[in-house]
Amino acid sequence: MSCLNCSIKGLRFEVNVNSIELEKTIVSYLSKHHPITQRDNTIIVNEPALRDLYDFSTDHLSDDMISYRIIGEQWQSIYTADEVFSADWIDTVIQNKQIISHYQPIITADKQIYAYELLARFMDEEGKVIYPNEIFSAARIRDRLYALDRLCRLTAVKYAKKITNAKAFINFIPTSIYSPEHCLKSTTMLADQLGIETNTLVFEVVETDKVDDVNHLKRILTYYKEKGFSYALDDVGEGYNTIDLLEELTPAYMKLDMKYVQGVASDGEKQKKALQLLSKAKEIGSIPLAEGVETETDFNWLKTQGFELFQGYLFGKPAKEPVMSISK
């Protein structure tokens, strides 16, 4: 079964008009130039038709009488549709696979390389860098998060092939996966085709603080585990009651959010949070990893307390090639 959410096809929209007479006028106007469908109290249109409707609304309507939505998403005023139109460049990025992965080392307490996190880097058609916040913001606006997350996962798996004698941490956004059996099949198949040992891949839940459907996340993680992969929780310590989340999901790795890492050696509140999460990680058998380490002082404090793995600029920035060793 192919994943329709991951294909970059023309967007379809539902339009609701707050007036029967105005709806008749709009249907008559649009149907002369575009294929449209009427269903219940809505009009189904493609993107060119919505662009025409947007222009019509801004030119002729003073009141907020028309709302629209990408099918399955939230209703919005027609006057916000320009955000969807202006983000259409994301479709090109995904279709043309304008992405590479960079490697950032994850080290042990004695500064041996344990793994690399594979971080997506995007480019426009001229080869200039597009920052992740721009990419993911545009993807959310145009409902392309499924397709973008899939592209990132598959690219990371390909780049993981270059890693030897270490693990690869690969990010994924749980809200971009509606069915693990369907959405993740291509990821696991690619790893198998490339001959990558499943026990070397660690799938990392990003936006852990935004998890609101724990049962859905459990299904995803169960799928990964059944396929022989490990998983990690990212940014632990923010938002959601992460202590409960750790116990419920029992990840192989727990990554302490950099908010509690940077300056932890001299900040009592950060120390309290770090030790609380460290205690829970040890209780459930999760390997504690501190991310965002930038100073030897913080590194030494975390190491002394019992953190086992470390990541941050102190040991290496994301790079096009995996570094072979870390300066001691």
From TrEMBL:
Residues 83-328 form the EAL domain. SUPFAM superfamilies: EAL domain-like. It comes from the Bacteria. Gene3D superfamilies: EAL domain. InterPro entries: Cyclic-di-GMP_PDE-like, EAL_dom, EAL_sf. This is EAL domain-containing protein. The lineage of its organism: Bacteria, Bacillati, Bacillota, Bacilli, Bacillales.
